[in-house]
Amino acid sequence: MKQGGADVVMGARDVERGKKAAVECGREGNGTIRAVQLDVEDEASVHQAAEWIERECGGLDVIVNNAGMAYKGSTFGPKEAQKTVDVNVRGTIRVCERMMKLKPTDESHGLRVVNVASRAGLLRIFQNQELRNRFERASSKADVLQLMDEFVDSIGDGTYRDKGWPDTMYGVSKAGLSAYTRVLAREWEGKNVFVNAVCPGYCKTEMTSWRGVKPPVEGAETPVMLALCPKSECTTGKFFAENREIDF
Fold it and tell me: CA of 65: how far to CAs of 28, 48, 91, 149, 191, in Å?
């Protein structure tokens, strides 16, 4: 985004690591890049980051929700599922609800919200048609969070298989994120706000133990396209990968 001339604020739990990353990423392009402390699980941290952005930048025009986590190997349990949901779903909700209160710096651009989801959370992971329908038809944040709570609870009491849940904490959390993306897009439709989900692909990052097949710069191409494309080309409530729309 910086290479496209944008002024970027990078949220990081460890602000010193964030500052180092900002320096590494800031060597090319005409924009600027700065780091601010931001932990998506911490309400106070999100609030303070929003205040900093408002004070230092005057507002914001793009929100890219890239915070996410996944456990390694066969790790699977109720505590781990709760953590995965808290970061990948509740954290994104928390950031959206606070950051979307800020005024845009450029009304002509329209606010862009880009939620980094995954093909691992496509609706096809649900073999249970009732569950799939509930994700597809979720009409509120409460609907999405109810599904996430049911998933965690069913792991805790050992009934998740009987109830049709897949055994992927990451996948279910990303399905929840995609459902929330659709909910948010409907809530803000017609208000100069464009909300979409995107799969960056299997990238070589710390989260994938550097086993991915795409360098991060390639993974960023589709999120950046959605963030910076001309307003006339904007859509909302869709899912993208490799610079094109795909099915949820």
Answer: 22, 17, 9, 21, 20
3-state DSSP assignment of residue 181: helix
Q: What is the mean pLDDT of each run of 10 residues along the chain (248 residues)?
A: 74 93 75 93 98 95 96 95 98 98 90 97 97 98 98 98 97 98 97 96 68 74 93 95 95
Q: Which residue in 71, 160, 170, 202 is the catalytic one?
A: 170
Per-position DSSP letters for 107-127, written without gaps between them: TTT-EEEEEE--GGG-GGG--
pLDDT score of 216: 72
d(CA 175, CA 79): 19
Kindly state the tokens that stand for 15. 């602000």
The token duo for 217 is 């710069």
Look up 170 and say whether it is catalytic. Answer: yes
What are 10's strand-pairing partners? 35
Q: What residues have CB less than 8 Å from 133, skipping those under 6 apart?
A: none
CA 12 to chain centre: 14
Nearest Cα to Cα of residue 88 among 191, 208, 8, 171: 171
The β-bridge partners of 246 are 239
| Spatial distance between the Cα atoms of 152 and 183, rounded to a whole number of angstroms | 21
Helix %, strand %, coil % of the chain (to 5):
50, 15, 40
Q: How far apart are CA 121 and CA 164, in angstroms?
A: 15
Q: How far apart are CA 111 and CA 151, in angstroms?
A: 32
Q: Are 36 and 50 in contact (CB under 8 A)?
A: no
